[in-house]
């Protein structure tokens, strides 16, 4: 039950939203259930930190035959970050999303995303992982097209088709793997693969299909094209949620797969993943620097930042993986907050084109500071969380003797700073261009909940930078767990109740 | 038998890939459907093709000889992905309909307004 | 589509197919059948009815909105999932009622049946909401 609640809470909200008609009750219930989810995720932390990996065998069927739900330190950390992001975005959305969208089921589908994301963080077998992916994707497809504006339609068709192809790759991989090894439980698979070392090259076709599917979901370099084409089209609350959660699930699965299966054939995978990360980092940041749309710059930055996480994984040392986990968490907060600020600017100014915006700082210094915090956290300025994240990654790179990669990471950080300064100057600082078509300002709309959510997130970003030590220690413990999968395998397969 | 089905899956994949490379959105959608069915067939094939019974324990007995039955897991997986495919088919066709209403075109080449330039 | 023979057939078919689907629902778990298949089969009856009489007539025969059908189906599923926790077993464990000996060999009542009923209701709701939406869009109301 303790893990199943992460699936059943969103499920309960979904069925209540089907039975209840009033939009205002739905919004309140959404905030309530998001709070429950956050509290429950926090309650898992002491168990996994001081006791043991949490394993639930659904229906009481023993491990390789039934469905296992597993949460180790890494999963619980991701669950908590998801819950925080989701909670704050829900508060933000109660005000930011227009009433028509809220009535036609905005929260309904965001809870679908929550269910899928939570499910994929605790899934213990690969087909279950695929099912949670589909739950998450279906909800995100609908959220992306909800409202039916022209740009949204275009964005969602691209998003839909490329993500469906990634789902197909995943199913094909599952089929091949099942045909080869006859099991789907991740712990069991890992145990079988480590026994049959002669089969490694034989399994690579199936695994490569899956890794490509994760790379599409996580927007790694040759597969990222859907992300910048679609993330700037939906309402800002939706793109904040998608940017904060979805690509991270792909990366989570990549880390999980790497530490359970792929490391057996390390010479083949290590370089591949490392250089995929480096390319994502470089290409993402260059593409971002050339854009002139607030949300498009941030979307390209997702690609670049996912690259940082993946090179941390590619080093394959304790400090590398710990840095990757820390960076993942930092990125969820900072990126979501940057999108939240973009949402407020869009609401106030009606556009996000950098060329027509200006002087927003004069209008609202508070939002200016909020953007400053999240953007310069993304760029990696001390004392914000991004500084710690980048420092850890680069330090791990130097320790693992990947000096070139570490230098490239430093260099990319410079360009990140450049494009963040670009947004800062163009949107918040410069004078409004003279030739800009003056629009009659709409009547001032309240935005106190949006502000609250964004402030809380900014405080968390600063706190994560200032009090990083306990979090880094936790991440290192999680990395040690990941690098020694024997414990995971043992706990899942020899589960006794 | 496995060989024939494997070749058939390959054919389906090539048909699907051909279709998703077309310019018309409808053909791309059809390509997705063909590809998803091909992927389902891979799982089906992974269970192995044997001449045997459905995996149900007959009335009044307690156990069953595993040699007599098919692998039920593969079938469960296939039905799950068929159900997911049903939902996706309904959604994707609705999206296509709405897209055609909003823009009045079937052409994928006109879909370049949101791309990075 | 006004046609006397078709109208009569649609009604008879709907009733017959509902009985067949309930039979399939009840024989599931021990024999081929179950909630999903039964739900699909039951909704074919409603679809024929909708083609003949139009979508508003189907909504009237369903009594409740399709959203409520899906919602109550999910609610039944949730109950079936959570119920075993009362007995201190992991969620989704099958719990069977003990029945008198005379009928216990061919009647089994337990949480899997409840789960299947939930799936049945939800599947009917989902399929019909898809079909009704399509018919509304195409203005198929003779």
UniProtKB/TrEMBL annotation, chain A:
Pfam families: Proton_antipo_M. InterPro entries: CPA3_Na-H_Antiporter_D, NADH_UbQ_OxRdtase, ND/Mrp_TM. Coiled coil: none annotated. It comes from the Bacteria. It is found in: Cell membrane; Membrane. Residues 123-416 form the NADH:quinone oxidoreductase/Mrp antiporter transmembrane domain. It is a multi-pass membrane protein. This is Multicomponent Na+:H+ antiporter subunit D.
UniProtKB/TrEMBL annotation, chain B:
This is Multicomponent Na+:H+ antiporter subunit C. The chain crosses the membrane at residues 6-21, 28-49, 73-94. Keywords: Cell membrane, Membrane, Transmembrane, Transmembrane helix. GO terms for cellular component: plasma membrane. The keyword Oxidoreductase does not apply. Pfam families: Oxidored_q2. Belongs to the CPA3 antiporters (TC 2.A.63) subunit C family. Its main location: membrane. It is a multi-pass membrane protein. It comes from Natronoflexus pectinivorans. It is found in: Cell membrane.
Automatic annotation (TrEMBL), chain C:
Residues 6-128 form the Na+/H+ antiporter MnhB subunit-related protein domain. The keyword Transmembrane helix applies. It is found in: Cell membrane. Pfam families: MnhB. Keywords: Cell membrane, Membrane, Transmembrane, Transmembrane helix. The chain crosses the membrane at residues 12-29, 35-56, 68-87, 117-138. Coiled coil: none annotated. It comes from the Bacteria. The keyword Nucleotide-binding does not apply. One of its GO terms (cellular component) is plasma membrane. InterPro entries: CPA3_antiporter_subunitB, MnhB. Belongs to the CPA3 antiporters (TC 2.A.63) subunit B family. This is Multicomponent Na+:H+ antiporter subunit B. The lineage of its organism: Bacteria, Pseudomonadati, Bacteroidota, Bacteroidia, Marinilabiliales.
């Amino acid at each position: 039950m303790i893990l199943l609640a992460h699936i059943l809470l969103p499920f309960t909200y979904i069925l209540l939203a089907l039975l209840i008609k009033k939009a205002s009750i739905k919004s309140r219930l959404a905030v309530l259930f998001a709070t429950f989810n956050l509290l429950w995720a926090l309650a898992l932390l002491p168990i996994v930190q001081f006791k043991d990996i949490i394993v639930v065998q659904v229906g009481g069927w023993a491990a390789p035959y039934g469905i296992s739900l597993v949460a180790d330190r890494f999963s619980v950390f991701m669950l908590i970050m998801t819950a925080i992001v989701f909670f704050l975005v829900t508060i933000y959305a109660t005000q930011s999303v227009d009433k028509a969208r809220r009535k036609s089921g905005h929260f309904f589908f965001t809870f679908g995303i929550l269910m899928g994301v939570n499910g994929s963080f605790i899934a213990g077998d690969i087909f279950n992982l695929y099912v949670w992916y589909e739950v998450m994707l279906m909800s995100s497809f609908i959220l992306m097209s909800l409202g039916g504006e022209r740009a949204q339609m275009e964005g969602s068709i691209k998003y839909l088709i490329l993500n469906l192809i990634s789902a197909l790759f995943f199913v094909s991989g599952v089929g091949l793997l099942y045909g080869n090894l006859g099991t789907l439980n991740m712990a069991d698979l890992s145990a079988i693969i480590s026994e049959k070392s002669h089969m490694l090259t034989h399994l690579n076709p199936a695994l490569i299909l899956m890794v490509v599917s994760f790379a599409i979901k996580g927007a790694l370099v040759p597969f990222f094209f859907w992300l910048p084409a679609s993330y700037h089209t939906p309402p800002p609350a939706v793109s904040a949620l998608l940017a904060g959660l979805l690509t991270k699930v792909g990366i989570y699965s990549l880390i999980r797969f790497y530490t359970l299966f792929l490391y057996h054939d390390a010479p083949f995978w290590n370089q591949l993943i490392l250089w995929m990360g480096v390319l994502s980092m470089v290409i993402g940041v260059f593409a971002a620097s050339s854009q002139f749309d607030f949300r498009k710059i941030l979307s390209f930055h997702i690609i670049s930042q996912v690259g940082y996480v993946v090179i941390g994984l590619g080093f394959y040392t304790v400090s590398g993986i710990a840095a990757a986990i820390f960076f993942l968490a930092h990125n969820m907060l900072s990126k979501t907050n940057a999108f939240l600020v973009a949402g407020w600017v869009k609401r106030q100014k009606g556009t996000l084109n950098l060329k027509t915006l200006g002087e927003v700082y004069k209008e609202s210094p508070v939002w200016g500071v909020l953007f400053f915090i999240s953007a310069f956290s993304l760029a990696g300025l001390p004392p914000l969380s991004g500084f710690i994240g980048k420092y850890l990654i680069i330090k791990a790179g130097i320790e693992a003797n990947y000096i070139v990669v570490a230098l490239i990471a430093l260099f990319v950080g410079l360009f990140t700073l450049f494009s963040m300064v670009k947004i800062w100057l163009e949107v918040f600082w410069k004078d409004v261009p003279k030739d800009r078509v003056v629009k009659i300002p709409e009547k001032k709309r309240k935005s106190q909940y949006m502000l609250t959510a964004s402030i809380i997130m900014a405080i968390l970003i600063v706190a994560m930078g200032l009090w990083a030590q306990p979090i880094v220690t936790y991440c290192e413990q999680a990395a040690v767990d990941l690098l020694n999968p024997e414990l995971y395998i043992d706990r899942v397969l020899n589960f006794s109740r | 038998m496995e060989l024939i089905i494997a070749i058939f899956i390959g054919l389906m994949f090539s048909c699907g890939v051909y279709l998703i490379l077309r310019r018309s959105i409808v053909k791309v959608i059809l390509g997705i459907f063909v590809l998803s069915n091909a992927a389902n067939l891979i799982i089906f094939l992974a269970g192995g093709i044997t001449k045997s019974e459905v995996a149900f324990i007959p009335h009044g007995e307690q156990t069953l000889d595993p040699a007599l039955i098919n692998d039920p897991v593969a079938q469960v997986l296939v039905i799950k992905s068929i159900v997911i495919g049903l939902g996706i088919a309904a959604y994707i066709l609705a999206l296509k309909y709405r897209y055609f209403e909003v823009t009045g075109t079937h052409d994928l080449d006109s879909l370049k307004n949101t791309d990075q330039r | 589509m006004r046609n006397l023979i078709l109208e009569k057939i649609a009604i008879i078919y709907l009733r017959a197919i509902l009985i067949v689907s309930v039979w399939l629902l009840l024989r599931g778990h021990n024999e081929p059948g179950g909630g999903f298949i039964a739900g699909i089969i039951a909704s074919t009856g409603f679809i024929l009815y909708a083609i003949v009489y139009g979508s508003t007539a189907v909504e009237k025969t369903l009594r409740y909105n399709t959203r409520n059908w899906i919602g109550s189906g999910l609610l039944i599923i949730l109950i079936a999932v959570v119920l075993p926790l009362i007995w201190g077993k992991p969620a989704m464990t099958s719990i069977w009622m003990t029945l008198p000996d005379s009928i216990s060999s061919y009647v089994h009542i337990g949480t899997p049946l409840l789960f299947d009923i939930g799936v049945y209701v939800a599947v009917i709701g989902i399929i019909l909401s898809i079909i009704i939406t399509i018919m509304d869009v195409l203005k198929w109301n003779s």
